[in-house]
User: What shape does this take?
Amino acid sequence: MDIPFIDIHTHHSQNSEEIISVPSFFLQDVDSKNEIETPFSAAIHPWHATKFSFEQVSAMLENLSNQPGLIAIGETGLDKICTADYQQQKLLFELQLKYAENHHKPVIIHAVKSWNDFIPFLKKARVPFIFHGYSGGAELTKQLIDLGCFFSVGKLVLQMAPRFREAFQIIPLTSLFLETDDSSLDIRKIYREASEILNIPLDQLKIQLNENFKNLFHLQE
Ligand SMILES: [Zn+2]
Assistant: This one.
């Protein structure tokens, strides 16, 4: 197989010869009786934080342990714009981060106006953080790079605002992923655009992001 395009975070999985996509499921939708063999992530989304108690989420996480395809916990995180109680979001984020650490899984982070609240977690986290739908400015990006973060960028690649271009260009290639998230965009289009903005050949970008994927998730050929 040629080097695939990796869509690290999507809500519309479209695996093909050319594309490996990692669907992101809401934890409450994962059926514990149905084994999922292909790579996926799952978590309670911060939007749904007040729908579930700490105990309910703990029980749902325990059921995940039997899922062979689980490669990451996410999307989880903190969202200051949504209506879900922020304290409850924090409580469930901590719970899910602890689960990820115990099971050696990276976390895929949904962050809205909450960047600074992740810093204390990042300083002591034992698993990699991937900030998905990343849109931060250059200053924040530098700070997160120093903390060892990974970044997944989606549709913003196609609407590259000057403010974000600088940030996008300083992300080390070894810390970068691309995604379609909830859009119906073609991941190949996002790769092509990214390779132009970063001024590197498409093949080189594919090779590097595929390496990142295998390294971060400890996947074998
Ligand atoms: Zn998403």
In short: The longest helix spans residues 86-102.
